Amino acid sequence: MAIAPITGKLRKRFWVDLTTALGLGFGAGYAYWYGIHLKSFQKHEEFYYKLEQAKKAEQS
Fold it and tell me: How high does pLDDT run on average in the chain?
């Protein structure tokens, strides 16, 4: 007795899986970019700004 092949399973759920994956991926990327990356970048910029101001004050 042969087992019937499962057909159409991928096609039926493809769009749901694709939109879910893209939505979660973009959401996670957005959360990382605005929640973590920009804050750490701002800390780096503030550090180098203070360093530059200290060098200018030292030269004057």
Answer: 90
Measured between alpha carbons, how far is 25 from 49 in angstroms, rounded to an integer?
Answer: 34
Confidence at 43, pLDDT banded by 50, 70, 90: very high
Q: What's the sign of the alpha-carbon dihedral 23, 26, 31, 34?
A: negative
For the full predicted model, state whether its pTM sits above 0.90. Answer: no
- What is 2-59 written as a DSSP string? PPPP--SHHHHHHHHHHHHHHHHHHHHHHHHIIIIIHHHHHHHHHHHHHHHHHHHHHH
CA distance 30 to 26: 6
Judged against a pLDDT cut of 90, whether residue 36 lies above it is answered with yes
The Cα 5–Cα 54 span in angstroms is 73
